[in-house]
Amino acid sequence: MQNSFDISTLIFLALAVFVAWKLRSVLGQKTGSEQPPKDPFARREAPPPPRPDQAGPASEPRDNVIRLPGAANDPVVTPVPAAERWKDIAPAGSPVIVGIEAIAAQEPGFDPHEFLVGAKSAYETIVTAFARGDRKTLKSLLAKDVYDGFEQAITDREKRGEKAESNFVSIDKADFVSVEVKGKTAQVTLAFVSQLISVTRDAQGAVVDGNAEQVVQVNDIWTFSRQLGSRDPNWLLVATEAGA
What we know:
Elements: H1 2-27, H2 82-85, H3 95-106, H4 112-132, H5 135-141, H6 144-159, E1 163-182, E2 185-201, E3 207-210, E4 216-227, E5 236-242
Antiparallel strand pairs: 1-2, 2-3, 2-4, 4-5
Helix pairs in contact: 4-5, 5-6
């Protein structure tokens, strides 16, 4: 019995020695130069910048450089002279260009191309509103004396029991005739060429003027005016005449 106990003890001791040897071979030994455990919330010191002698080749791109407008190596953009930008409207140095430049001097955002687009829209709106007798629309687009003339013509037409119809087929042209600036007042005169179907009927529906089935060419010369620097962006129609 005693012998079996001694043999068992020896076996366990041998196993213990073997396990200790394996752990030592896997985990290694302390040498005194081990790094302490890192604190994940500790403040990190930024690495020192590289010395000039350690920098990479000058030709390597620096992706972290943010270029700002106006940097010394930005390409120089030469502004296009007004005469070049507007050469399709009138010759450089002509009274029209001089007038456009005078408007742009007080309102740098003025663009004669955009003005023509707006003038065409106003032209069609005013002609159509006059035919319908739309006084409210006309009052917002006409100067007082011009509105008074249009309103009187509408009133006379209504007294006769007549109704007018105007339908645009196209606006073929809208060209600058003159551009003038006097102080803060700008006046722009345009020549319009349009294709229009226009007819006026009496109270019984009979045609008294025009032709409901005929397209006619209409030539008009209209002058628009505006106080430069005003908060109101609208140009008002201040004069009309028939073109040649």
